[in-house]
């Protein structure tokens, strides 16, 4: 019985030892993915800020500028692209909506971001765009890959429609979490006018004909959870200028259109941290908790199987000698003769 139990335990030990690397290196890359129907809203604020007043054509200090970012998964489009791409694809339709302290629209820029659901690598397909302009993204945007590494990544900048490195600057603690801190600086770059202008009856094409140009620079900062690859905080030191502005009747040739330190609103930071903490448990189950747990269980089962096998081979106590048992009886009979 001991030998049979040892063989059963040995079989389980082999099973769990094989499951450990399979979970980490086979199951995890296939099971961990971004859901195609994800919806996310984020509110950021620059307090205070400099903003162009289009009624006076002058830059003014304002109490705050609000940026509302929405990401909405387009399931229908993702399924359509998956059929031709042959892999799991996510399509995010996003909108960055900027409003002044009076609640009026300053600008809004829609995007369609198409990427691999597992690796977050961009997928090039019809419909990939920024503000209606077709683009071909390289690098990541919005989210880092699962199990983010301590290295620089290529990051797509929607304003300039270009890709450049975002640099790993070290590990930091944010709201009790160990996170990776990244920075990217975009130098002054000429960028397109938003298609939707805050001046009624004026289009970007009409502004372009005057010779006035829009320039942009930013320092982008992200605090990223390395397990899920999701940013738990983001900030930008953002600057926009209109140059050759006198051609549009402005008093100066270079006018600040918007400048400010943009930060996530506190309530959205709290919600984001809680969401990421819950999601990282699922990733850790597949990459750490279960693989290491199965390996330790396999080691324990193997040790128990070997112990039972050793006990089954151990010789038992010697059986009594039949002749020795007979001697006292024979001796008694001899005395009786």
Order of helices and strands: HEEEHEEEEEEEHEEEHH
Look at the structure and give the mean pLDDT.
Answer: 89
Q: Indicate the structural class.
A: alpha+beta
Helix coverage percent of residues? 25-40%
Instruction: Report the strand count.
Output: 13
Global shape: elongated
Output the number of helix runs.
5
Question: Can you characterise this structure?
Answer:
By secondary structure, this protein is an alpha+beta fold. Helices cover 33% and strands 37% of the residues. It has five helices and 13 strands. Strands 1, 2, 3, 4, 5, 6, 7, 8, 9, 10, 11, 12 and 13 form a 13-stranded antiparallel sheet that branches. Strand 8 (153-157) and strand 9 form a beta hairpin.
Brief description of this entry?
This protein is α+β, with helices and mostly antiparallel strands and about 325 residues long. It is about 35% helix and about 35% strand.
List the defining traits of the structure above.
disordered C terminus; 5 helices; 13-stranded antiparallel β-sheet; elongated; alpha+beta; 337 residues
What are the SSEs and their pairings?
Layout: H1 2-31, E1 39-53, E2 58-62, E3 65-73, H2 75-85, E4 89-99, E5 105-116, E6 129-130, E7 133-134, E8 153-157, E9 162-174, E10 177-191, H3 204-210, E11 213-224, E12 231-243, E13 254-264, H4 266-313, H5 322-336
């Amino acid at each position: 019985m001991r030998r049979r139990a040892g063989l059963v335990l040995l079989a389980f030990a082999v099973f769990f030892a094989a499951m450990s690397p399979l979970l980490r290196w086979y199951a995890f890359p296939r099971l961990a993915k971004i859901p195609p129907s994800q919806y996310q809203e984020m509110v950021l604020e620059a307090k205070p800020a400099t903003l162009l007043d289009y009624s006076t054509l002058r830059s003014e200090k304002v109490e705050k500028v609000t940026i509302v970012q929405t990401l909405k998964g387009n399931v229908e489009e993702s399924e359509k692209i998956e059929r031709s791409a042959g892999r799991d694809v996510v399509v995010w339709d996003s909108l960055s909506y900027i409003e002044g302290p009076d609640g009026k629209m300053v600008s809004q820029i829609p995007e369609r971001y198409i990427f691999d659901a597992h690796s977050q690598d961009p997928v090039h397909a019809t419909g990939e765009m920024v503000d209606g302009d077709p683009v071909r993204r390289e690098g990541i945007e919005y989210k880092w890959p699962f199990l983010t590494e301590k290295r620089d990544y290529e990051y797509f900048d929607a304003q300039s429609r270009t890709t450049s490195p975002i640099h790993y600057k070290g590990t930091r603690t944010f709201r009790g979490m160990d996170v990776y801190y990244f920075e990217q600086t975009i130098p002054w770059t000429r960028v397109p006018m938003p298609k939707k202008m805050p001046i009624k009856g004026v289009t970007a094409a009409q502004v372009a004909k005057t010779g006035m140009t829009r320039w942009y620079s930013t320092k982008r900062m992200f605090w990223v959870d390395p397990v899920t690859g999701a940013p738990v905080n983001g900030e930008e030191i953002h600057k926009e200028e209109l140059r050759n502005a006198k051609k549009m009747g402005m008093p100066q040739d270079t006018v600040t259109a918007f400048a400010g330190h943009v930060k996530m609103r506190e309530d959205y930071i709290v919600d984001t941290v809680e969401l990421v903490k819950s999601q990282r448990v699922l990733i850790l189950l597949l990459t750490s908790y279960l693989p290491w747990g199965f390996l330790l269980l396999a080691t324990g089962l193997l040790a128990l199987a070997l112990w039972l096998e050793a006990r089954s081979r151990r010789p038992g106590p010697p059986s009594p000698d039949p002749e020795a048992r007979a001697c006292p009886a024979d001796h008694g009979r001899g005395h009786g003769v």
